[in-house]
Design brief:
Function: Converts N-acetylmannosamine-6-phosphate (ManNAc-6-P) to N-acetylglucosamine-6-phosphate (GlcNAc-6-P).
Enzyme class: isomerase
Pathway: Amino-sugar metabolism; N-acetylneuraminate degradation; D-fructose 6-phosphate from N-acetylneuraminate: step 3/5
CATH superfamily: Aldolase class I
Number of helices: 10
GO molecular function, one term: N-acylglucosamine-6-phosphate 2-epimerase activity
Radius of gyration: 16 Å
Number of strands: 8
Family: Belongs to the NanE family.
Order of helices and strands: HEHEHEHEHEHEHEHEHH
Strand content: 15-25%
CATH architecture: Alpha-Beta Barrel
Number of domains: 1
CATH topology: TIM Barrel
Length: 227
């Protein structure tokens, strides 16, 4: 499950598609997730991001691009792959990259972010993507050993206001710091134009989820516009 530096470099300037459905939705099925991911790859996605162990397993068999896996457990606070146990399980399910909460908040298992990252590296071949909410989070995540940092949690931790689109100011601030690890733009990227802006702001690659893979939300946008 080793993601080589060459394979990681191949994501530069490319689209990563997040394929997730919420509990109770018609598309909430690992087989459907894998099909959606495979369709995204046909459309040109260079990698996919998937939530849940079964979804990771099914998607790993369906695509040949790098797979970023995570495990959401809960709804508030630290719930994106919140513990080392969750992270190792995601890696063992086939993820090339494990996305974890990369904020400076206390983790449910009492481990520090650095201990969590070290544990993932020690127990698997997976890389670690730190989902951050601020510049301070990103700096701490890099110091902790994260292989990639993302703006996934910008606007959701109370440190920054929630922007209507991607947090371009945060992207520019992190990019200017030159941390030396790939910076992934993620969060509220709802159009190709916004994806381009995120890349121009300094992102290494761009994750788009809802605008591509969540029909209920996309339909709602059109319904609201027609109303």
């Amino acid at each position: 499950m080793l993601l080589t530096p060459e394979a990681l470099e191949s994501l530069r300037g490319r689209l990563i598609v997040s394929c997730q459905a919420y509990p109770g939705e018609p598309m909430r099925d690992p087989r459907t997730t894998a099909q959606v991911a495979a369709s995204a790859v046909v459309g040109g996605a260079a990698a996919v991001r998937v939530q849940g162990l079964a979804d990771v397993q099914h998607t790993r068999s369906a695509v040949e691009v790098p797979l970023i896996g995570l495990w959401k457990d809960g709804h508030d606070g630290v719930f994106i792959t919140p513990t080392l146990r969750h992270a190792v399980a995601v890696a063992n399910s086939g993820a090339h990259v494990v996305a974890i909460d990369g904020t400076r908040r206390d983790r449910p298992d009492g481990l520090t972010l650095a201990q969590t990252v070290a544990g993932i590296h020690a127990e698997s071949h997976a890389l670690v993507m730190a989902d951050c909410g601020s510049f301070q989070d990103a700096a701490a995540a890099v110091e902790a050993g994260a292989n990639l940092v993302g703006t996934t949690l910008a606007g959701y931790t109370g440190e920054r206001p929630k922007t209507s689109g991607p947090d371009l100011d945060l992207l520019e601030e992190i990019a200017a710091a030159g941390f030396g690890v790939p910076l992934i733009a993620e969060g509220r990227i709802h159009s190709p134009a916004q994806a381009r802006l995120a890349l121009d702001a300094g992102a290494f690659a761009v994750v788009v989820g809802t605008a591509i893979t969540h029909p209920a939300t996309i339909a709602g946008w059109f319904v609201d516009a027609l109303a």
